[in-house]
Structure formats: C-alpha cells, structure tokens
Amino acid sequence: MAKGKHEKKYKVNIKRLILIILILVLIISLSVAAYFLFNRYKNKKDNEELKEIINNVDENKPNERIEKVKELQKENSDIIGWLEIENSNISYPVLQGEDNDYYMTHNYKKEYSKDGSLFLDKDYDWSLPSTNLLIYGHNNMSSTEMFVGLMKYKEESYYNDHKTIRFTTNEEDAKYEIISVFLSRVYYKSETNVFRYYYFINAKDETEFNDFVNNAKKASLYDTGVTAEYGDQLLTLSTCSYHTTDGRLAVVAKKIKK
Prior knowledge:
33% helix
C-alpha cells in the first residue's frame, strides 16, 4: 500500500514539474515576443522621426539635404548618405560598416534592430569612386520597413510611377533612373555561366561594365527603355525575395547627369 502511495505521489510531482516547466517556457516565449514587438515599435518610431529630418527640408535650397546628411554623420560616422524613392515608404539613411553583417541587425544608432538598416557594400571604395553603389536592405514579411516596399517593382505599373531613386551624400544630391528590375538568387560556387550581380562593385574595364549592364537588362522583368554607358555611375538596390530559395530582387539604376 505504501508503495502505491509513493508511486502516486511521484507521478503527481512529475506532473507538477512538467506544468512548471511549461509555464516557464510560456513566460519566456511571451517575454521574447514582447521584446521583439517593442523593439520593432521603437525602431519604427525612430525611423518616422528620422524621416521628418528630410521631409522638412526646403527643396528650394539644394544644399539643405546635403547639410542634413552632414548633421547625421555627427551622430554616426558610418552614415554615408540618404536614400529615398519618392511617394514610397523607402526613405532612410544608408550606412557602410567594416563588414556586411553588422547593419543587418543594427539601426543607425547602433542599437539592435531586427529590421536592420540600409547599408552599402563594404567593398565600395569612395576614393575611386567605385562603379556601383550596391545597397542592401531587409525584406522582412512581418514588417513594412527598409526594402519591403522594393518588391512592388515587380509590377511594371509601379515602376512607371517610381522611375527614379534619390541618393544624397555629404557632397551631392543626385537622382538615378532605373534601367532594370530583376529576380535572382544567391548561386552556388559550382554553378557557372550565371549572373552574380552581387559581386559587381567596380568595373575593371569597359567590357566588364557592359557585361553587367547587358545581363541586368536581359534579366529585367520588363523593358525600361533606359540603359547605361561605360563611365556612368550605377546604383543597385538588393533585397531578399521569396520566389525561390535564397532568392533576391535587384533594382539597377544609373545617375542622371546634370
């Protein structure tokens, strides 16, 4: 009889232990979810306040946007410019770090952010300057921040209303006209004869430049009627796409000459 009571008590204790563990797991899960939701809310609020800096610029004063970029650089010297697509949600500072990882998970204040920041490829050399401003940004489906809106370019009708990209640095306020929008993916090293657009930063010669432009135009989802010539400054926006494993969407543009 004593043995039966002992077994019963043992089973009760096991059930209590399991219940306690489940409660702890639930508390931890809710805490983590709450943290991420708060972090996303905070970052979104910070981004909205940050956008007001550019939105309040007097467009009749051409150098005012440049001065705003200079002011932001005092807060974080990694800020190299401001990217904006008019009449869209895309209007953010662009950063360049020592690697291509840090700003995937940090905002312009160097605080943790699941949405990260827009950032220029680490290999872009401003002293040249390099041929192609390759800028990355997240496309988190649970968010509306960063390059989520870039996916709208899959529709030609959206492109027709958003043909230019504005990029302001501490030296110039420039506009770029889009020449190509295409879907791609990260290719395996063993794959040959594929268009690895994400390696193109600086053209070593005219042939390499033309190959990039021709491949971008060939892969484009629609014909923009715009191309680029050797010597043009290019800008490429790149984000994740879920049409395939390791999918990517890229928007390639060239600087409009003043």
